[in-house]
Structure formats: C-alpha cells, structure tokens
Amino acid sequence: MSLPPSNAGVAAPKKELLRGTLLAAAVAAVLLTVAILPAEYGIDPTGAGKALGLSRLHSPAAPHAVPLKAAAPAVPPGGSTVSAPGEVRAVTIASKQTAAYRTDTREITLAPGKGVELKTHLAKGAALMFSWKTTRGEVLDHDFHGEPVNAKNDEFESFILEDEVSQSRGVLIAPFTGVHGWYWKNRTDEPVTVVLQASGFYSDMFKK
C-alpha cells in the first residue's frame, strides 16, 4: 500500500522564508530607528544616533524654501554685453552731435603767479577732446571743469584736477549744457606758455 505524499518538505521552506522576512524586517526597523530617523529627520528615540554622530547630519530645511537664481547682469541700453577679453565693460556714452565739428590750436602765456581760464560752450551730450603741454616742460596746476547755464558762483564740476603737471589730455561728453574748459595756475616766478590743441563739437572758444 502506498503512503500519501508528505508536506514536510514544503513546510520547511515556508518556515525559513517567514523567518528570513521577520529578520529583514527587524534589521530594517533597527536601521530606521538608529540611523535614518536621526540623520534624516532629527528623531533619535534611542540616543544611538547622537552617539554615532548621525544626528549632526540632520539640517532642517526652511519651510517652503524656493531655490534662488543668481541675479542676471544688468544689460546696458541696446541689449549688448560685449567686452574685450580681460576687461570689465564700461558704461556706454554716445550721443549724436548737432553742432559743427571744429579744431583749434591756442598758445596761452601765464604771467608769474597768475592763472588763466579758457572756455568753450558745449551742449549736453556734445564731445570735446584736448591735449596741452607747456613749451619748456614747466609745471602748472590744471583744472578741466564745467559749469551749467546760469550757474551760481560755487556751482561747477571738476572733471580733471591736477597739481604740478607739464601736460595733460582728455575727452569729455558734456553732462549738462554750459561752459566747459580749462584753468591753469602758474606758481613759478617766470612766464609759462601753454600750447593747447582742442577738437570737438563746441560752438566757440574764449578767455574768461
């Protein structure tokens, strides 16, 4: 007589599988309690997270934090951001000129201890370029400046201010309509002659 098949061989693997599942769950619970909760959420019920240094890994995030974008660089008028290699782009100053272009060369002699002013009339946005030097390398005090129309006595702006120089050069796009030009002061005991070369969109040139 044959015996019915035994279920012992099937029951044993099921018991081993159940035992393995329970063991894995226990290990996961321990890892959750000891490592994940302290490190990720700052929850440390057993104190093991602090002992193991895992609590230091937790850094609370600000509520509703929104990633910040870097501020975009200011775009100059016209939208261009081009610049030469290794340079920081300067402010663009350009203006269509309405006055006629002219050039002048003047010789100005300063008496000992005296000063002389030579001026031009410039409209706002008009350009003036210049270069001057003394004939024998003598040094003078120099103030290249401007004053608006109907200016008060103390209402002016110095653009280039120098002491004891024998030459200078520069360019100006007038920030306001008014009188712009040069003042030289001779602090020596001898007459000094200055040779000025100027060009631009000014209407006249006169001593003041």
Automatic annotation (TrEMBL):
Which spans are transmembrane here? 20-39
Keyword line? Membrane, Transmembrane, Transmembrane helix
Its domain of life? Bacteria
Tell me the protein's name: Transmembrane anchor protein
- Record organism: Massilia atriviolacea
